[in-house]
Amino acid sequence: MSSTPLRVDRARCIGAGMCALTAPEVFDQDPEDGLVLLLHTEPPTAHRAAARMAAGVCPSGAITLA
Amino acid sequence: MGESLHTVTALPTERQPGCPFDPPTELIDARQHGPISGYTHPGGKPGWMITGYDLVRSVLADPRFSSRKELMNVVDFELPPAPPGEFLLMDDPQHRRYRKPLMGRFTVRRMRLLTERIEQITTDCLDAMERTGPPADLVTAFAKPIPTIVICELLGVPYQDRGSFQEQIDTFMGGASSDEELIAAYTATQEYLAKLVAAKRANPTDDVLSELTDSDLTDEELKGISLVLLAAGFDTTANMLSLGTFALLQNPAQLAALRADPALTDGAVEELLRYLSVAKTFMRTALEDVELGGQTIKAGTTVVLSYHTANRDPERFTDPHVLDIRRQDTGGHLAFSHGIHQCLGQQLARVEMRVAFRALVDRFPTLRLAVPAEEVGLRPETADIYGVKSLPVTWGEES
């Protein structure tokens, strides 16, 4: 399966932290403004399921699997 | 299609006796008929009741539905807009203006840094409970003080001011106060917050409210934000801790499993959030005509979203009415809502609940109700946040 690059939209992000909670190897929050930080655009296989779940639970639709 | 529309004819005010953790029967029935039902608001205005998980979630993510207080079409007089700073009842961009300066202060990382302090507060509460009991009221000994101390320290409310403040918040959120009591509590709170904001401006300390004074927010706005944070911080987690303990005591196999395996704690917290959904319902108003679940929601109509019933939707959760702390499908539960208003303090609530439930079950291996379960006093359905009024518990040898 080819990997799908992740994209985040900081203008949509509401800093709820669901991504950093669900897939901490892939997402973090900016310590200043709380907005999403993408650590890997193409996460290693081991973290892909968690990244997909994080995209699914993001409350503001700020994460897309392009 | 072709089926007749199910209608929720009266405001569901009663839970089934003996089922204090389940949504009112009428809402469970409504969900069985379909995800959306006709509904009449208590003020007589026509609306809709949405009980299906997918539909609730889609409305919460849909900018065609508004949170603005002045658009709520539920009574036959016009509601005023939300006061400055009370951003739960606003849409973007106003909502984001208030949420933005707060987001960096409630991150997963920042909240985890509070773990040790929350453990200390919890230990202090449990020590005091052990010294004076058994029996004890778990609400006053444990469920209320922990989140209250935490949010007051975070926001910068002085220790000595906590008592009266908590009483006022109880008056707002308890669902059983007269208009006079509500107005008195609101006025007293506003006066207190005005003084607090002025004090932080004059002498900033190391807390969120002091940090916020260094922004373009006015004193009125800071008062509103403080009220939102305090009310949300006190009442929601407190009710989750007390009602959650009640639910665990009524499900002894689940309690035993949690006690035996600390690795189950995080999952137990998510499952209790889903199962109990103490923030039961929220409302949204359609800004234009919207097709939803085969119905047309007319512009200006207000829909009620039953988070609790949605979190019990059998199409989303296996055996939804069963409390199962090992459940693998809690991800995406709606206890903290969804969309741009999803709970700002949820990562704080998670740390508080993980620490507090863990410490409680470890400390009192024989914890049990001190009264028959049916005598535990419950908040009325009119309360914004559901919960128990008190939870008499005991421990040690059976007497």
UniProtKB/TrEMBL annotation, chain A:
Superkingdom, taxonomy of origin: Bacteria
Segments forming domain 4Fe-4S ferredoxin-type: 4-32
Record keywords: 3Fe-4S, Electron transport, Iron, Iron-sulfur, Metal-binding, Transport
GO molecular function, a single term: 3 iron, 4 sulfur cluster binding
Necessary cofactors: [3Fe-4S] cluster
Biological role stated in the UniProt entry: Ferredoxins are iron-sulfur proteins that transfer electrons in a wide variety of metabolic reactions.
Protein name: Ferredoxin
Species annotation: Streptomyces viridochromogenes
